[in-house]
Amino acid sequence: MSHPQAKSITTVFKKVIIALSGLGLVGFVVVHLLGNLTLLRSDGSAFNAYAAKLEGLGGLLAVAEVGLLFVFLTHIGSTLTTKKRNLSARPVAYRQWKSKGGDTPSNSSSRNMAISGSLILIFLILHIWQFRFGPGMSQGYVATQGQEQIRDLYRLVVETLKNPLMAAFYSLVMVLLGLHLRHGIWSALQSLGLTRPRTLKPLRLAGAVIGVVLGVGFLMIPAWIYFGVSN
């Protein structure tokens, strides 16, 4: 039988892992959005140049992608095991959900972090697979950059997001991402012990603002391409 103190230490350690991996993923999301905003330039040259630089990393890009998936799986795995342990410790559900930082009921995003995170992971795997192994120069997806021919990933993105089902799926995932970040950023700071009674509300607001800004930033892309970019 496990010692209660050992269980407590394990739970705290997992919460720290969830927080650190989550904040690392927030950093990736910010950098990824900055690169993807080049899609708003309708000629596609800026995005193709950005994509070509990434592909030019070769093996380093593959290592980064594997590392990203590892961090994501660690984040979700730790979240699921912590949630399972919490449910086992309290088999009878609370009559009213409350946030860890106060006596106000928690919102739906805080109760569905594992679900939204799992759906985002599925999207990430499909996203990497499509742009890593999707049609390339041999299938006619060719763009010119100076004197060099490069893969026309901009065309692939436009064709994908001109599909109404794909545009809707992408948009749904980005809404989930914004909701996930809205709660997750504040929760991560709290798990790391960085919140205080007087900073609780400002940090919660900051997490909400960052989540909304990143979610809206990504939502702009399918809307811009689906409604604004010609075939």
What does this structure look like?
This protein is mainly alpha-helical and 231 residues long. The protein has one domain (4-92, 111-228): 3 helical TM bundles of succinate and fumarate reductases (Up-down Bundle). Helices cover 72% and strands 3% of the residues. The chain has helices at 4-36, 45-55, 59-89, 108-111, 113-133, 153-161, 164-191, 200-228; strands at 142-145, 148-151. Strand 1 (142-145) and strand 2 form a beta hairpin. The chain is elongated and about 60 Å long. The termini are far apart.
- Secondary-structure-derived class: mainly alpha
Gyration radius, rounded: 20 Å
The helical percent reads over 70%
Number of helices: 8
**Which regions are unreliable across 5 or more consecutive residues at pLDDT < 50?**
93-107
Distance between the termini: 64 Å
- Nearest-integer average pLDDT: 80
The string of secondary-structure elements, in order, is: HHHHHEEHHH
Question: From the 3D coordinates, which CATH architecture would you assign?
Answer: Up-down Bundle
Query: How many runs of DSSP E, i.e. beta strands?
Result: 2
Task: Domain count, please report it.
Answer: 1
Strand order of the largest sheet: 1-2
- Give a short account of the largest sheet: 2 strands, antiparallel
CATH domain class: Mainly Alpha
Morphology: elongated
Tell me the strand percentage band.
under 5%
